[in-house]
Amino acid sequence: MRTNTSISMDAGKNISIFSKRIFAAFLLMSAGLGLPNLANASLVDLKWDEHGRFQHRGKIKAGGILEVCGKLSAGLKIDWQYQSAKPLDFNIHFHEGKKVTLPVKYLARDTAAEQFEAKQSQDYCWMWSNKSKEAISVDLSLSQVQK
């Protein structure tokens, strides 16, 4: 199931980008959207190769999250896909002022593939949460769509 969600960040006025991400993760968790223990959070910077591609393979600790975040320009289209060894909750989100918006959200999926278009210039994050009691591997592939 895919849904769109927004969450307010009223208390997060003067904090760094990293702190905003942690604060937003806390808000998502407290809103019941399924984020586990933040002590097990991993953050990866989205860095494109010379062909406009990005790949990441990693493990998400039991009760942990993985975020891959980077700046996207408005109108940029990204073909993306991931596979994981077991189902994970997944979303693509961004922070805008006092709220966190999730244009893409899936619950308990071990694979997904779509095209995502950035509606505005923002830092966007692909994020997985592992609610299980064991580490789960995930493979991500992103590719900028050439005009």
Tags for this model:
Jelly Rolls; eight-stranded mixed beta sheet; 147 residues; disordered N terminus; mainly beta
Cα distance spanning the termini: 30 Å
The proportion of residues forming helix, as a percent range, comes to: under 10%
User: What is the CATH class designation?
Assistant: Mainly Beta
Rg, Cα atoms, Å: 14 Å
Task: Please give the count of helices.
Answer: 1
What is the element string, with H for helices and E for strands? EHEEEEEEE
CATH topology value: Jelly Rolls
The description of the largest β-sheet is: 8 strands, mixed
Q: Give the domain tally.
A: 1
Mean pLDDT: 83
| CATH architecture descriptor name | Sandwich
State the shape.
Answer: globular
- Structural class label: mainly beta
Beta-strand level of the residues, as a percent range? over 45%
**DSSP strand tally:** 8
Given as residue ranges, the uncertain stretches (5+ residues, pLDDT < 50) are 3-16, 29-36
Folded structure, characterized:
Mean pLDDT is 83; it is low at 3-16 and 29-36. Strands 1, 2, 3, 4, 5, 6, 7 and 8 form an eight-stranded mixed beta sheet that branches. By secondary structure, the chain is mainly beta. The protein has a single domain, classed as Jelly Rolls (Sandwich). A hairpin with a 2-residue loop joins strand 5 and strand 6 (99-117). The chain has one helix spanning 17-30, and strands spanning 5-8, 41-45, 53-60, 65-72, 77-96, 99-117, 122-129, 136-144. It has one helix and eight strands; from the N terminus they run βαβββββββ. It is globular, with a radius of gyration of 14 Å.
